[in-house]
Amino acid sequence: MSFIEYGDTIKDGDTAIVFLGHESMFPVKVQHGTVTQTKYGVIRHSMDLIGKKYGSKVTCSKGGWVFILHPTPELWTMNLPHRTQILYSTDISIITMMLELKPGSIVCESGTGSGSLSHALIRTVAPTGHLYTVEFHQQRAEKAREEFREHGVEHLVTVTNQDVCKNGFGVSNIADAVFLDIPSPWEAIGHAKAALKAEGGRICSFSPCIEQVQRTCLAMEEYGFTEINTLEILLRVYNVRTISLQIPDLGKAAEDNSIAGFDSSNPSNQGSPCTNLQQGTVQFKSGVPQKEMVGHTGYLTFATKSLF
After folding, report:
1. CB 176, CB 169: distance < 8 Å
2. Distance of alpha carbon 230 from alpha carbon 300, whole angstroms
3. How far is CA 214 from CA 85, 217, 307, in A?
4. Is 135 marked as binding a ligand?
5. Which of 160, 164, 196 is nearest to 181 (CA)?
6. Positions of E strands within 30-145
7. Does residue 111 have a known ligand-binding role?
């Protein structure tokens, strides 16, 4: 199994996503002889998963059913075990675009954290690119290596356990882009410049506090980076629902004209909003924002390495 080479059949040792609904899903490692408990009952890996096709509808022991999905970076971001705070698809999408990543790109990243962005970067630069990711915490670095191996992408990523602010990325003049998600990114700007190709490249720094952004921008200017800009991405989700609005009172003449122009016995008018005239309301489909929305996550600062 690989997160970048999609297969049709579920195999022993695969990582699969058990989908109960849009707000309820979780990852599971498929193993012969193992069972997984859900609110709909038990899933037996040997009988219900292995050999079935991804996307299959699986009936659980209590009669309920789930879908088994092939993992993608997007699904993994929503379901991965959190070892640190992670980046979500909203920020990831703008990062991959603004860093101008494509198949074959070489990317340096610090820190690895829970690997949310890492999986998306690997998928973007595959099959000929490479990700060099640096993680300060030894246990997190080892866990990231293990996950990349289980997910079939270890040949596209090199995980290094060191302090990027002191020791850099371990590579020089090969990267097309650098991404920083560390507490003091201004201390790593010099190492980021050294990792980028001599002919230039892009850098992005993610910071939750504006004071971090200010110091990072000053460091970027000091090291000769240009086109420095900072942005923040906010996601607002809308729910589509049916709402009822009261028909305005426009006077008796308007009411007579409205009723005269509408024939409720005409089959073509069945289901029309006007069918509610006698009740004094009319129904519409409307997009309504959710009462709660994801707020500030962090600031993204982008810059370009100058050739001079």
Report:
1. no
2. 5
3. 22, 5, 23
4. yes
5. 164
6. 35-38, 41-44, 57-59, 65-69, 106-110, 130-135
7. no
User: Known binder of ligand: residue 263?
Assistant: no
Render pLDDT for 12-40 as a digit per residue (tens, 0 to 9): 999 999 999 888 999 999 999 999 999 99
Torsion of CA 16, 19, 25, 30, to 10 degrees: -20
Q: What three-state secondary structure class fits 160?
A: strand
The DSSP secondary-structure symbol of 244 reads E
- DSSP structure class, residue 168: T
Give strand ranges (E) for the chain. Answer: 15-21, 24-29, 35-38, 41-44, 57-59, 65-69, 106-110, 130-135, 157-161, 177-180, 202-207, 225-231, 238-246, 281-289, 299-305
The tens digit of pLDDT for each residue in 206-254 reads: 999 999 999 999 999 999 999 999 999 988 888 888 888 888 777 665 5
Between the CA of residue 249 and those of 255, 278, 281, what are the distances in Å? 8, 13, 11
Is 250 one of the annotated binding-site residues?
no
* pLDDT tops 70 at residue 259: no
The verdict on whether residue 91 carries a ligand-binding annotation is no
163 in a known ligand binding site: yes
Per-residue burial over 66-87, b = 16 or more CB atoms within 10 Å of its CB, e = otherwise: bebbbbbbbbbbbbbeebeebb
**How far apart, in whole angstroms, are the C-alpha atoms of residue 48 and residue 221?**
58
* SS3 of residue 239 by DSSP: strand
Strands 35-38 and 24-29: unpaired
Could you give the C-alpha distances from 7 to 19, 76, 297, in angstroms and in order?
18, 16, 34
Is 117 assigned to a binding site? yes
Distances in Å between the Cα of 211 and the Cα atoms of 132, 220, 223 are 28, 14, 19
Specify whether the CB–CB gap between 182 and 298 falls below 8 A: no
- Amino acid identity, position 270: Q
